[in-house]
Amino acid sequence: MTGPDFAFTIDATEGSARAGAFTTPRGVVETPAFMPVGTLATVKSLDPVELRAMGAQMILANAYHLHLRPGDDLVRDLGGVQRFSGWDGPMLTDSGGFQVFSLKSLNTISEEGVEFRSHIDGSLRQFTPESVMRIETNLGADVMMQFDHVIPGQSAHSASKDASERSIRWLARCRTEFDALHAVEGAPRQALFPIVQGGIHADLRREAAAAIGELGTAGGATPWQGWAIGGLSVGEAKPDMYAMLDVCDAAIPRDRPRYLMGVGYPEDLLEGVARGVDLFDCVAPTRFGRTGAFLTATGRVNIKRSEFRRDPRPLEEGCGCSTCRRFSRAYIRHLTAAEEVLGLRLLSLHNVHFLIALMRRAREAIRAGTFSAWSRDWLARFHAGSPQATDS
Ligand SMILES: [Zn+2]
């Protein structure tokens, strides 16, 4: 599972921020990086060629969704999720914990696992740490996430502690199953990332990080190749999220990539980078695109506003994305008003590009030793100019 397949190097640091490179079997990811989300093995409406052209280096897929449809065994038989989806670069699968625990049809949670009904056909299913490892191994992405017990963001200490400790017991079972599956000849070359949970409680975050670290090296095993921070950006206040990132920054080893799950608002990316986070993902940029919203350096704007009806300018002046190089706000507004599919595609393309480019500039700033000044100015402009901070 480890050895030369995975490596993490840090080229430059500024405070807790780091610029580096995460090497996986299918290529190198320059960090910090934003990873577009392809839940169903597709970043909604975007072609892998377009993702590559805008600088995407690693993308996500989701174990829950692909298990239900088309089936992880089918994906395995067709060469794994990368070959199946036409994306030949590094890829990560989420375990489906977040999806399963969000389901209204969630049946029972026990120490063994979770019973739920498929949102597609209502059939009764069970996820356990072991079954999720089998699913993610079938999918075959470079990085797979542990199965964890996900709870609402502002859960009380007792509920957070219960879920965090169960997640660590499930991590031990994930590791055992992962090792068994990958001891087989011909198994995909993958790394398993643990997830630090603990809600908004600093003591639980610290305890989780310590326990996960011990588990990683138990029996002389190679330490985890990367760490994830979960259960943030799920309804808690932003200061609480940033405080937890400070706690995790101090508690998680610095020589491994840190992945902040499900966080992708521009301001949160920069606040995360400042606290030592290397990888981010979020469905927001494509979801924004489907609602007519686009990101700019002065905030989020909706293309449906009437002032854009005759606006010949690109979505954002100076943006190098293929939408802004070719199309006007007036045209994209027209497409959106007419509910033409190209409209949401062009908006999504710009939004994903925006976050990838933001992380590229963060890398450059860290290397130049100017990250803290640059991000302070960037955030001031973004917050001051945010004309529709509450839209969509
Ligand atoms: Zn653009």
How would you describe what is shown here?
This protein is α/β, with parallel strands linked by helices. The protein is built from 15 helices and 17 strands. It has helices spanning 48-53, 63-68, 72-77, 81-85, 97-102, 129-139, 157-182, 202-217, 238-251, 266-274, 284-290, 322-326, 329-337, 341-368, 371-385, and strands spanning 7-14, 17-24, 27-31, 33-36, 59-62, 91-94, 106-109, 114-117, 124-127, 143-145, 191-193, 195-196, 227-229, 258-260, 279-282, 293-296, 299-302. It has a five-stranded parallel sheet with strand order 4-15-14-13-12. Strands 5-6-10-11 form a four-stranded parallel sheet. Helix 13 crosses helix 14. The protein is globular, with a radius of gyration of 21 Å. The relative contact order is 0.13. It binds zinc ion. Residues 315-316, 319, 321, 323-324, 350, 353 line the site of zinc ion.
Q: Which features would summarize this protein structure in a list?
A:
single chain, 392 residues, alpha/beta, 15 helices, disordered C terminus, binds zinc ion
Radius of gyration: 21 Å
Q: List low-pLDDT spans.
A: 388-392
The overall strand count is 17
Q: Termini, distance in Å?
A: 42 Å
Structural class: alpha/beta
Proportion of strand residues: 15-25%
Globular, elongated, flat, extended or rod-shaped: what is the shape? Answer: globular
Major beta sheet summary:
5 strands, parallel
Helix content: 40-55%
Work out the helix count: 15
